[in-house]
Amino acid sequence: MKKRIVVLGAGESGVGAAKLAQKHGFDVFVSDFGAIADHYKATLKELEIPFEEKQHSEGLILDAVEVIKSPGIPSTVPIVSALKGKNIPVISEIEFAKRYTNAKTICITGSNGKSTTTMLTYHILKNAGLNVGLGGNIGQSFAAQVCEQDHEWYVLEISSFMLDDMFDFKADIAVLLNITPDHLDRYDYQLDKYAASKMRIIQNQTATDVFIYCADDPETSKILSASTVQAKTYPFSIQKTVKEGAFLENESINICINLNEPFIMSISELALQGKHNIYNSMASGIVAKVLELRNETIRESMGNFKNIEHRLEFVAKISDVTYINDSKATNVNSTWYALESVGTDVVLIMGGVDKGNDYAMLKDLVRSKVRAIVCLGKDNKRIHEAFEDDVEIIVNTFSANEAVQVAYHLAKKGNTVLLSPACASFDLFKNYEDRGNQFKEAVKEL
Fold it and tell me: Do 242 and 176 lie in a common domain?
């Protein structure tokens, strides 16, 4: 009789995991407490994988030998508690997929900069001719790639939620960018618990593996001093010189690995500008040097890299105000990352189709950083209700042009106007790309 695997959550990671489990002969069932997107439903039907949506039927779930859980589902929800009560293992898609590939993995985590560093690292490796896949929290599901077109290398963006459900998995190269307060509602509001979750990136590593980390990050330094690291370590810093790793000197990144020729590149030549992106570029550069890629290849890739359009995309600087397009932020979590990554006071443009958003996680950041909220959507009532006590000015607008004009008048010198909607776009726009493009056009007309 086939062993039964249940997949909780039918998004990119869940459907990918279901495909891979089916390929390896498991009896697969997919359950999603919310509605399943049409294209994922079509895939499951085509593969004849049974599924349910808008419910979790305990009778169909609690007879599994193992459960693969979407990272978005907290471990405290009733169905996961019931599984744990029956000692049924609950793992992540990443953990499951790694069992079926001999590929080497570069795993990147951190509170900020994960997507950018993952994309940049992938860009460098791909340009160098490596057979490399991109997955984890970004791009196509890791499990789906292992199932359909396995690669020799994977660059994986790994969230703390994924790490919590990873046990035997080992990263060949682990990167920890930083640890700042994030998702603390999932960690009993204790930064130490969240930091411990991030440090799982180095679990199971041996002396033949590599760990790359930011030596300037206080929380990383704190938890490292209490941790045992088996892997070869390479720190990166813009505050001090390091013997092996990366540091900033004379406005240039210096990367020294073993006794090989160092890699030196002026920060003015980097495609990614800004202090946080110096860190991201250093981390990616160390990975490239560890893999002994040619300096010219690294330099070229770091110089011509284009970040994902509509994701924290720099648009313009006008009268000392920076305009950033983060239209891809269609949920509260993404907007949290955007606000966290901006180092100035913000005029925040947000709104659209509210998918039952819980704005509570944004309140602290809004209080400390946001001087005004410009709502861009047909119905902005819930944004007003969520933030009326946290910010003095909340204005309604009904087009990208109007939103940009209002933000222009509200912003002061040194501020950032950030489009990071936390909502879907289809009340006023075709999709998030259309929203981002209209925002960029409106900024250029200022």
Answer: yes
Q: Are strands 263-266 and 313-318 parallel, antiparallel or unpaired?
A: unpaired
Start-to-end C-alpha separation, the chain: 67
pLDDT confidence of residue 29: 97
Confidence (pLDDT) at 160? 87
pLDDT confidence of residue 319 = 95
> What span, in angstroms and rounded, lies between the C-alpha atoms of 67 and 86?
12
Low-confidence ranges of the chain (pLDDT < 70): 181-186, 188, 355
Burial (CB count within 10 angstroms: exposed 0-12, middle 13-18, buried 19+), residue 295: middle
Parallel, antiparallel, or unpaired for β 232-237 and 173-176?
unpaired
* Amino acid 183: pLDDT: 60
The Cα 76–Cα 68 span in angstroms is 15
The enclosing domain of 200 has a CATH number of 3.40.1190.10
Residues 188 and 280 in one domain: yes
Rounded Cα distance, 52 and 35, in Å: 9
- Which of 104, 99, 93 has its CA nearest to residue 205? 104
- Note the pTM of the prediction, 2 decimals: 0.77
Q: How many domains does the chain have?
A: 3
Same domain (yes/no): 100, 80: no
How confident is the model over 194-216, as pLDDT tens digits?
888 889 999 999 999 999 999 99
Domain residue limits at 399: 313-444
| Final residue in a domain of this structure, among 255, 285, 304 | 304
What was the pLDDT predicted at 424? 84
Of 91, 111, 127, the last residue of a domain is 91
